[in-house]
Amino acid sequence: MSDPLSSTLIQDQNKEGLGNVQDYYTIDAEDKDLVRMIDRKIKSAGKDYEDFKKEGKTNEQYWKKDHLKTITLRWHQSRIIQNIIYMGVETMIPIITSKPAEPMISVASDVMDESDDNSRIFTDLLQKVLLEKYNDPDYPQQELMEMLARHLLLYKIGIPKIIWDDTIDDYLLEYVHPHKMILSSDGHYNADVWAAQYLEKPLNELLDMFPEKKDSIMANLFPGSSVTIENVGNTPVGFWEYNCEDGEYVVWKMEDVVLQKKLNPYIIWNDDKTFNKELNHFSYPKKPVMFLNSQNLGRHIWDDTTPVSQTIPIQDGINLMQRIGIWLIISWAPIQRHEGIRPRIIHLDRISWQNRQIWGVLI
Q1: pLDDT, tens digit, for every residue of 232-281?
Q2: Secondary structure of 61-99 in the HEC alphabet?
Q3: Whose CA is closest to 181, among 287, 265, 94, 97?
Q4: Do 188 and 71 sit in the same domain of this protein?
Q5: 98, 102, 192, 339 — which has fewest CB within 10 A?
Q6: Which residues, in sequence order, are bridge partners of residue 357?
Q7: How many CB atoms lie within 10 A of CB 187?
Q8: Taking a C-beta distance cutoff of 8 angstroms, is the pair 6, 287 a contact?
Q9: 169, 82: one domain
Q10: Are residues 212 and 345 in the same domain?
Q11: Cα–Cα–Cα angle for 247, 252, 254, nearest 5°?
Q12: Beta carbons of 155 and 308 less than 8 angstroms apart
């Protein structure tokens, strides 16, 4: 699903580094049109995003043992919890991530034939390098995959993202918390989904990232005032990173200010700003963001349910039976054995339900 704003392209710069990463080709689209389009899309996804976020928050609450926060318990009622949701999630994650799938390496160039001995040696070595990188102590991929699996079970989607790290002159894979990225709700394939990630940086770091926009940023944040960076440099500033559906371009914006707009920097483009089919691994542009789902009916990019959501009613039942069992023990025990005082007895046929609580009538 291509965006109409990805039209003519101007200006190019190159950044030297591993793989000769292209810094950007600026897209020729009016800033006000980009701002209007991004704001409209974020607003249109609001209701679906809030429902998605609400369910994720509930699942997180049960995972963190905060099951009883919405229940009013009297001082003598049990708060013991047998958290099968936490135990289930943390048992599944090591099983999912302990043995990574072997990477499939293919020869992209016509110069080398996959049946050639040299080609096989090259692909086998590269496969071993990728598997070793999975357990790299400096950038452990297994920990990353564990977090993505946890997000998938709790929030109905896992979101890995490719970034370029200048310090190591290489690509890194990181995770994005699902509640910090708004996704279009009308697509279930990667190429159908736009993604708007909310980011936050101190003002001085934001100005370092986009120095050419310093005046516009300061005018937007402090209209009509003459503040200095020394006084407000640590002020946290929120902004959006928007990736269009087909992965052709990316836009950073803060309020009404477009901080930068450019072609996908992870793609190799021809001099005429068209997609280079020979030098790119894929046959078409792709976003540097991926979406992991597993229990999906095709309505959205995120899952329709998760094992955690399905287990919550069982967890509520276990919590309730735990309170009933302890209450019965206390209720059948004699309070005192002085004359005129008899044991408290609970009649199960006189139990009433209210707000997830159980009330017994003692006689």
Answers
A1: 888 999 999 999 999 999 999 999 999 999 999 888 888 888 898 888 88
A2: HHHCCCHHHHCCCCCCCCCCCCCHHHHHHHHHHHHHHCC
A3: 287
A4: yes
A5: 339
A6: 354
A7: 17
A8: no
A9: yes
A10: no
A11: 150
A12: no
